């Protein structure tokens, strides 16, 4: 017997069983018998109900299950949007050094300054409507078709996709549809690659996601300078406010590249406000000098450094809000267990993301200034190239985040290209085409979620399971599992301990996430 002071040694794992061992043979026969019994029970239940049993608990009706998911998803999405709005408002008040107003609810959450109620309700109806209608349609299709096939998930996801009509902005609907189209294509490719059907050349490249991000950013920044009407208004305003160059300058550059006469009056008024009335302007210039691009300083190096630091100060509150608020709402138990660690995690990620965006602005501005040092004529392709080179700042982000950013910007680039092709009559302008596309994409997304979840990106898979319809991740209530199920789980744990250790990274987080444990919900 070891002394109390001696360290306790971990118990050794049992040696693997010999396949010829009689105990192992009896265990295999018992497993086969239990599985056969469960198959017969499911078949009997299907014959009794004339349709496969639903995923929810037996003591819960299909209607109650759908309404519960609708309310749960509505509250989650509404809370996230309002929380982000309140935190951004708090940063705005703190920037004015009005710290006492942070404790004044009238200034912090007044409807005059915090206009998020309608948008939050629309987002809540979108997410909640999809979750509730999807679960209701899944149960309805089981009863109507009397069988459970992948087609059920596709049909339910496609019909539930009509919830996107809760968003009244067609540009936002189109962007979201193109984003999901990229995700469906990603899942289809991952599925085909896992089955050794085909794979793209270069798919094994270490920085393939950064290359995709660069190509998408090149198109977006070209559209921002040369075709601003092809970008959503909110997205265009975000880029304009983040960058250091004023709108009248971009307008003059656009007219210069196209060979149009420059609006000298508006450009002269802008330069006069900056105290640079001495700059000589031409109606048909070949290129604008750097003194027009950044009139407040003659040094391009100072301009780039100022633009980078200003971007960091402006965008840090946004990134911190987008990181901190969803983590608190979606992982409330983890936040309550370690609030300081969660806060530091949000600050660290926000600093990293803000540094990436600040470097993007600095590099884009630097390429534009460098072109003016070596060239005597402006060209619109310079801004496409500048966007692609500036996107290399994505290497400051985590490897896992680069692919997410690439697939986030790619729909923006596709949206801009779509608009340009429709404007040039190369594509037909179909009303509400984005709604139809979104419905098709959601059918594909829900199929891959339920039948090939490994093909979905972890971010999107976790978002749907925990945000849209968290009960999908735990379709069977633990109380409804019988003793034979528990025994099979025990046998699996003895047979494949390493496999369970590998899968344990996702299981505990899903098990802890239970909104119903919060009082009042």
User: How would you sum up the global shape?
Assistant: elongated
**How many DSSP-defined strands?**
0
Share of residues in helices: 55-70%
Low-confidence stretches: 1-20, 470-485, 496-521
DSSP strand content = under 5%
User: How many distinct helices?
Assistant: 21
Major pleated sheet? none
Mean pLDDT: 77
Order of helices and strands: HHHHHHHHHHHHHHHHHHHHH
- Give me the secondary-structure category: mainly alpha
Distance between the termini: 52 Å
Q: How big is the Rg? A: 28 Å
What does this structure look like?
By secondary structure, the protein is mainly alpha-helical. It is built from 21 helices and no strands. It has helices spanning 22-49, 62-95, 105-108, 117-145, 150-160, 170-194, 208-226, 233-242, 247-258, 264-273, 290-293, 300-330, 332-337, 339-374, 381-390, 399-423, 433-451, 458-468, 483-495, 497-503, 507-512. α4 (117-145) packs antiparallel against α5. It is elongated, with a radius of gyration of 28 Å. Residues 1-20, 470-485 and 496-521 have low confidence and may be disordered.
């Amino acid at each position: 017997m070891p002394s109390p002071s001696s360290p306790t040694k971990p118990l050794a794992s049992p040696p693997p069983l010999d396949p010829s061992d009689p105990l192992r043979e009896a265990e295999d026969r018992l497993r086969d018998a239990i599985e056969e019994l469960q198959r017969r029970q499911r078949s009997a239940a299907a014959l009794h109900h004339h349709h496969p049993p639903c995923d929810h608990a037996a003591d819960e009706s299909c209607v109650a299950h759908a309404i519960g998911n609708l309310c749960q998803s509505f509250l989650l999405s509404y809370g996230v949007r309002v929380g982000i709005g309140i935190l951004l408002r708090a940063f705005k008040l703190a920037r004015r050094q009005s710290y006492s107003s942070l404790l004044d609810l009238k200034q912090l959450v007044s409807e005059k300054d915090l206009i998020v109620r309608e948008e939050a309700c629309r987002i809540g109806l979108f997410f909640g409507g999809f979750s509730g209608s999807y679960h209701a349609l899944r149960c309805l299709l089981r009863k109507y078709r009397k069988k459970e096939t992948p087609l059920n998930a596709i049909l339910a996801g496609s019909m539930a996709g009509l919830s996107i009509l809760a968003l009244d902005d067609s540009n936002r609907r189109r962007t979201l549809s193109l984003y999901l189209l990229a995700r469906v294509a990603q899942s289809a490719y991952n599925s085909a690659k896992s089955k050794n059907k085909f794979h793209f050349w270069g798919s094994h490249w270490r920085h393939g996601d950064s290359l995709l991000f660069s190509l998408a950013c090149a198109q977006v920044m070209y559209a921002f300078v040369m075709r601003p009407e092809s970008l959503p208004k909110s997205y265009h305003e975000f880029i304009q406010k983040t960058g250091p160059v004023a709108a009248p300058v971009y307008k003059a550059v656009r007219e210069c590249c196209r060979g149009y006469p420059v609006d000298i009056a508006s450009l002269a008024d802008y330069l006069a406000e900056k105290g640079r009335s001495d700059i000589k302007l031409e109606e048909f210039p070949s290129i604008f000098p750097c003194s027009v691009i950044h009139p407040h300083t003659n040094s391009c190096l100072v301009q780039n450094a100022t633009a980078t630091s200003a971007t960091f100060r402006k965008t840090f509150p946004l990134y911190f809000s987008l990181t901190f608020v969803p983590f608190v709402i979606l992982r409330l138990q983890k936040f309550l267990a370690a609030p300081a660690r969660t806060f530091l995690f949000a600050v660290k990620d926000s600093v990293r993301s803000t540094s990436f965006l600040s470097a993007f602005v600095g590099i884009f501005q630097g390429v534009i200034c460098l072109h003016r040092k070596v060239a005597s004529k402006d060209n619109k392709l310079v801004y496409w190239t500048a966007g692609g080179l500036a996107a290399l700042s994505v290497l400051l982000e985590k490897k896992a985040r680069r692919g997410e950013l690439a697939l986030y910007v790619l729909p923006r680039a596709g949206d801009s290209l779509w608009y340009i092709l429709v404007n040039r009559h190369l594509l037909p302008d179909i009303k509400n085409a984005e709604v139809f596309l979104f419905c098709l994409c959601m059918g594909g997304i829900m199929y891959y979620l339920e039948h090939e979840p490994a093909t979905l990106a972890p971010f999107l898979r976790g978002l749907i399971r925990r945000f849209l319809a968290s009960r999908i991740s735990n379709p069977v209530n633990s109380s409804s599992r019988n003793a034979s199920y528990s025994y099979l789980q025990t046998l699996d744990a003895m047979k494949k301990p390493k496999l369970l250790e590998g899968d344990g990274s996702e299981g505990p987080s899903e098990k802890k996430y239970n909104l119903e444990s919060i009082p009042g919900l």
